[in-house]
């Protein structure tokens, strides 16, 4: 609603004064509701800011503008609070969780590639970032009217499988592997890299085995298939726990029979070159060439990613492709974009990069054995959450279910509250606190509102909207009005942290409000105004949590 007021002011000033791109901003609390900086207009019209104010002040009056003032070079705008507040809250109350939804005139399909763990390795804490950032961005796009295709591009191909097969054949024990598949595969992978330091033939052995696997060797294919099936069992358990789902699990191997067509297309467009026996595409002076085939004819990541892009474009009708992959892959996606440009496509390829998960300030590494399985970490988090919950509410029903949702919410929020390009410190004790910028604080804020509303019938037509004229009400109502705009900013920047920070600020505002204002009052019209106000905050808070992948609770 406030965005509409800003738009109406801009439209009116443009029609009267011909001013394009007028800035109408929302200043910090305690100033005005809206403000127009007058300095650029003063420069344009060659007059001082006060004269500009005098010239345009009457033209700023649109619906819901109460009065304007000149302050330090700004045209400050104050909004009429009573009817505007009622309109905003009624909109939220009627739309419920659909508040902020967008319906696109023309549907756009977006393919999102995220999570993508490697087969034959445990699902670790390090996989959490891509999974949860991608899941949130997917949910945000769905809310804003896009058709999305969530793809888990499993790392189920490449030289690493040559390494796994060599390691299994040299040091593996079938009985042990059948008893505890992932842990044993992990040990073998680490052992390969340990032994490689003393045996420089192992790398070539792994390359040879992978080449044979690519060519369909029956023994290697059976081993690879077994590794894949056992890995997927663990992955699916993790996704169920995290409440993350995908439309496709087509991994790298899915594109084996599609790569030659991609290579042929490159050849037909005269883009291929041979360089020291390898097949490359020259991408210009500003980046290294794309290595399409090694000297032994084996394909590489970029070949498979190109085949995947062409398939996703043709199969799903998508021109927009989002990749939630770590910071270190920036060059790869620049190369991929340049490669498709040279082929004559105009794909919108976005690399949604993110930093590392650090434990005690250190990077995790599978091959070095410095690795934490997510399943073990979540179990530990659930135990800690249950202890905290029982100390606060020992009579709570469904303690195990609540503890699980608090623990997972804490882990997710700890990740998504950060700007994604930054590294994240993984400290369970800090993230499970019920105070500060944590997931449990947000869930508890929603539970607090739930307990306040319990037992009341909300009748919006009976509220006294004049209470909203008070500053501490109106400031929060303006925050609620920002939610649709927050969603668009989160989408445009591919940043769940925008929503994370917004709902944290909203929860803090409510808790501060609740410390100074009684909700349950005797006056029925004021009571209804308070109930609608509190419920609207809860609706937005819960929807924000949902978009982050965190479950809102009724009790904790």
Give your account of this protein's structure.
The chain is of the alpha/beta class and 556 residues long. Among the domains are: 2-79, Arginyl tRNA synthetase N-terminal domain (Gyrase A, domain 2, 2-Layer Sandwich), CATH 3.30.1360.70; 158-245, no CATH class. The chain is built from 21 helices and 13 strands. It has helices spanning 2-17, 39-45, 49-56, 82-95, 128-143, 159-171, 174-179, 181-196, 202-214, 218-242, 259-268, 301-316, 330-342, 374-392, 399-416, 428-431, 439-453, 471-481, 483-493, 496-516, 524-548, and strands at 34-37, 65-71, 74-79, 109-113, 147-151, 272-275, 278-281, 290-293, 320-324, 348-352, 357-359, 362-363, 424-425. The strands form 4 sheets. A 4-stranded parallel beta sheet has the order 5-4-9-10, sandwiched between helices. A 3-stranded antiparallel beta sheet has the order 1-3-2. The longest helix is centred in the middle third of the chain and has 25 residues, at 218-242. It is globular.
Feature tags:
556 residues, alpha/beta, Gyrase A, domain 2, four-stranded parallel β-sheet, three-stranded antiparallel β-sheet, 21 helices, 13 strands, globular
Q: What's the layout of helices and strands?
A:
Layout: H1 2-17, E1 34-37, H2 39-45, H3 49-56, E2 65-71, E3 74-79, H4 82-95, E4 109-113, H5 128-143, E5 147-151, H6 159-171, H7 174-179, H8 181-196, H9 202-214, H10 218-242, H11 259-268, E6 272-275, E7 278-281, E8 290-293, H12 301-316, E9 320-324, H13 330-342, E10 348-352, E11 357-359, E12 362-363, H14 374-392, H15 399-416, E13 424-425, H16 428-431, H17 439-453, H18 471-481, H19 483-493, H20 496-516, H21 524-548
Helix pairs in contact: 4-21, 6-8, 6-9, 9-10, 11-12, 14-15, 17-20, 17-21, 18-20, 18-21, 19-20, 20-21
